[in-house]
Amino acid sequence: MSLATGPRALLIAAVAWALPALAIDTELAGSPLHLTLTEWATAAYHLDNGNIAPPESPAYDPTGNDYFDWLNRLQLDAAWREVTFMARLDSAVFANAPTEAPGSTRFQRRLLHRYRDRLDFEKAALTYSNRWIDVTVGDLYTTYGRGLVLALRKLDVLGIDTTARGASVTGKLGDLTLNALGGFGNVVNVDSAIGRWADDPNDLILGAHADYRFGKWVAPAINASWVRLAKNSTDAPQTNQDQTASISGSLELPNLFNHGSAYAEYARQHKLVNDRGYDSSALYASAVLTFGITTILAEYKDYRRYVPIATSIDPLKAPELALTDTYTALPTLERLEQAVLNNSDVTGPRVRVDVAVTETIIPFVSVAAFDDRGFNVRIFDPYGGCEFSWQEGRSRASVSGGIRPSYHDAPGFFGFGEPSSSVWHVKYLASQWLTGPFSLELNGLHMSHKDDVGGRWVPWMEGQAYLSLKRAGVFSAAVGYEYYTEAPETTRTQYLNFNAAYTLNPNLTFRAMVGGQRGGIKCVNGICRTYPAFDGARLEIVAKY
Amino acid sequence: MKRVLLLGLLALAGCATLSTASSGASAKSGKVPDFELISIEGDRVRLSDAVGKGVVVLSFWDTWCEPCKAELPQLEKVYGRNKSKGLMLFGIAMDDATTVANVAPFVRRSGFTFPVLLDTSGTASNLFNPNKSAPYTVVIDRQGAIVHERAGYEPGEEVALEQKIVALLGAETPRP
Fold first, then answer.
1. Over the Cα atoms of chain B, what is R_g?
2. How far is it, in rounded angstroms, from Cα B122 to Cα B120?
3. Are A87 and A122 in contact (CB under 8 A)?
4. Which of A145, B10, B55, B99 has CA atoms 20 to 30 A from the CA of A522?
5. Non-local CB neighbours of B107 within 8 Å, separated by 6+ positions
6. Nearest C-alpha of chain B: how many angstroms from A412?
7. Minimal Cα–Cα distance from A243 to chain B, Å?
């Protein structure tokens, strides 16, 4: 292990942390100018990554132990007349970062592209907006329709944050809206979980969108995008750069006579990879219907080898970023906690029914069935639950659970029709208002898996439970227990952590965590990836000036 | 190019400090940035059409956010008690395209009467809630000044929020 800090890291830290940060309200050319500086910082000491494999084992992994990281986001926002401006500076500083022993290459793969101090001028955008036109120069966030054709999006401060750095023009002519954009792919460069980094892919992205709203009743739209990767998927010589052209048409019925809404989108995609063309299609539809106390959500997806458009980030060098950063995002129809390993060649419906028995008791049931052609399995996913509230809504509880079996579905192959896996889950939350601003909360998730591994059933479990005491607007303290038993021979199975949050004022919040958190596959909005366990201490500061 | 932009940002931050030092202002005032979103009912809603006509509250939330599910019914009650006095509440669903289908069913079965706007591209959250905190509450007075911002929700916080809103509604008179 070596100390990775130096004058460069100190400079980065100084710039990120010590920038004078105060808001201004002033005037410019007779109009108000409002500036806001938002600081978000997390500093963590990673004591242990939960790996318990013995040093002689191939699974032995000390590359996530005994290091410090400090990730910072400093964002300036300005608003003046019809003009807004934003700029964000991201920095990452690592200390005592794990390194390979001299002469060894044993952990070369695990340490590839990790723990590099960085200072990135991450995002910047200048926007002019009025009732008729929006013009943005800089980083663009845009989603067309349901994301089948283009989804340049930010999930959260530490997660996916993908933009096109270029220009966008949106014109609004009555009920007609037209948009055109062009730019180069720009992603957050450091993966916060394990400190892996990648440079911006700089893939060329072009997009166009048109929709017309016939009042609030009917809104047809067309969407198109073209992405040309800056780097091909292989080094083999080829005539054309790898590229993907996508087009979709959608029809939205926002108001079904005050009883609901409906949406349908059909997309076609043509990929050119290594000079070979691949065609695919995707259909997504949803409808919401309300009759009295009953609300029904019906969704359907039919994705035919419709693979999300990945960036040109090298999956061998930065697999976490290559997997999660995409230019499209398809609805999964699944629970957020559910690991969805194939959402590109799958068909099936989902129906959820909520019944508001009273204002305070709302049971629901959800049923889904998917034909997963990628893994040749049929999946059934029924679950249900109920939400309760009392004390005028200040206290509430929700509990839900279900079982999700899947069956081999390849005719003529061994095991056809037999179960291939199953997972059942229970999720609960209970929040009891005590008195004044005080409340007590218990929440948790338990998932129990069974996987068919070569004809042998392998059971394992994962989950967590948290108990919190809260004082509204000021502080909260929590104790958490987490467990993960999929690989007990290489990964520690149980974790305990203590959390505290303190709000000094509405613009300054501190959060701290000491202890351990489980690893495993975690999914956010249809994108799943494997996270390492974490043992250590983490401090998070959010300040808005 | 990045270095030039970085220097520009640093210069801008430096200017900001100088300006603040000279004005001594700490309250946030002035015109808030504008946006236009589509509601779950299909209506176009533009913030500037509301600002100045009452006290505006923007509540940013997601369908997968449990504290949001606790806060929104409380905001609905605050809205019911104060909308006739000039409170304008907008729920801004930050769900992206992958989960936006869950927004309307949640709103309908919860019986919310305030407008809920879809922010799938992050248009409004990028302006007011760049960290995408959920829930996140912004209160704008009749002069177009942001007078309150708050991330998160715990039971009981709606009391202080309503006191603030009532004070603003009582203290201000509508523009002609």
1. 17
2. 6
3. no
4. A145
5. B40, B91, B116
6. 35
7. 23
